Model the fold of this input.
Amino acid sequence: MLRFVVARSLATIPVLIGVSLVVFLTMKIIPGDAAEVLAGPQATKDQVELIRQSLGLNRPLYVQYVTWLSRAVRGDLGRSIQLAAPVTEMVRDRLKNTLVLALASALLALAIAVPVGILSATHQSSFVDRASMVLALFGNSMPTFWLGLVFILILSLHFRLFPSNGMHSLRGPAGIPDLLWHLTLPALALCDVPAAVLARMTRSSLLEALNDDHVRTARAKGLTEARVVVHHALRNALLPVVTLMGIQVGYLLGGSILVETVFSWPGLGLQLYDAIGARDLPLVQGGVLLVATMFVFINLFVDVLYAVLDPRIRYGT
Done:
């Protein structure tokens, strides 16, 4: 197992280098000059050139990349052009709020998807099965930002059940109940697509597992259907669900930018949205690199978890 973990960890190094290269080059091809933005509209050409030299923007591209990557490895992502503050501290503060939203959405998606998938598979071709899959198709098709706006109109503005924006109340105690109250609508909107995808995967995987020989043997022994499903079919059926969940967590981190913007959730996504509007390239670069790096490590964790659940994976490497 240790050999498998070490091999997988070493394999992430070229992936991380490739991710950093893509992020760096993407920021370079975006229209706009960081030196001109920092200098302001009234700056002269000499002032812009002076700022460009101080930032190292006149150096060859590969030198800029090596310098930026070496600083990023040490935890220095540069300084924000707009706020003149360290990017590392800015994205770290906002990342905590994004992780709260992503974790809540992931748990909510699992809590919805797995029971629905099991219910649908164990009642194949019934009304429950068809209704569940129609709802899953609906959830997978609806844009997240549109669903968030619908939640605000119905559950917040019409019935006044939940707040429409923010993470805490401006007045009154700001404890965990208040946080959960503000978290409900953003988490519901963000978990929509992952819940739909996971429910469909759980259903199809469980249907395949229910036709395996060992499951038929368990039924022949006279075990109850609930015991056959839970103890003999569900464990194998959840293996692809675990892999897919890792991908969906990456989606939750990257896709939170729309939900955070709609609900004014003070997370990394909203910060990146504001930074893109202000052409604050160091902040955009640092935030995107952080999200991409987390996505790589989440996939590494899923690979290890997959090997724990299915020993054939680690013996096959």
User: Anything to note?
Assistant: The CA atoms of residues 171 and 190 lie 26 Å apart. The two ends are 10 Å apart (CA to CA). The longest helix spans residues 225-262. The mean pLDDT is 84.
